[in-house]
Specification:
seven-stranded parallel sheet, Rossmann fold, alpha/beta
Length: about 190
């Protein structure tokens, strides 16, 4: 049986306050979008993250801890482990551990996503401090992909506001409205 590649690979970046946003996004996301989702979250290098387990309670999709060389499948959610960087190449995840810097993991993943997927790359910036993700959103947009930022519902607005201020965000929405927009993008791609 041939594996179907995802219509889009959707990078989801967040930091402080993003846990509720991740849950809200997955609660609203149907399990059969034809997309794959990769959660990039700022964590302390020594953290014993329960994010994979927590998020699996909010979706029927398989939620997996990302590992090096892991193939990206449709209707799956991949979670970056602590103390690592994650990139994508040829529908596979590349894990770099230990991480190369602090609070640049979203940019690093989004830039690799833009290069690997072009118009089939989507970046979503959720709650968090600082401006990680802004450069990555610029690259996604420059390569024809789509970008989202959480609206004023973000518990910590710095990351989404930074991306918006840079002029590289296509859609500013509450997390529960993002899935409908993703579905319409996928429908347009399929026609």
């Amino acid at each position: 049986m041939k594996t179907v590649q995802p219509l889009y690979i959707v990078g989801i970046g967040g930091s402080a306050g993003a846990l509720n946003a991740y849950r809200g996004l997955l609660d609203a996301m149907p399990p059969d979008t034809g997309m794959a989702f990769v959660v990039i979250s700022h964590m302390m290098p020594t953290a014993h993250s329960q994010l994979t387990r927590i998020l699996s309670r909010h979706t029927e999709m398989s939620v997996l801890l990302a590992s090096d060389g892991m193939s990206i499948h449709t209707n799956h959610v991949y979670v970056m482990p602590p103390d690592s960087d994650l990139t994508v190449e040829n529908f596979k995840l590349k894990l770099i551990s230990p991480r190369t810097g602090r609070n640049k993991q979203v940019d690093l993943f989004f830039i690799s996503l833009a290069e690997a997927m072009g118009v089939r790359a989507v970046g979503i910036i959720l709650s968090g401090y600082d401006g990680d993700g802004t450069e990555g959103c610029k690259q996604i947009k420059a390569n024809g992909g789509k970008t989202f930022a959480q609206d004023s519902s973000a518990e910590v607005g710095n990351m989404p506001l930074s991306a918006q201020a840079a002029g590289c965000v296509d859609f500013v929405l509450p997390v529960n409205k993002i899935p409908d927009k993703l579905k319409s993008l996928a429908a347009a791609l399929e026609t």
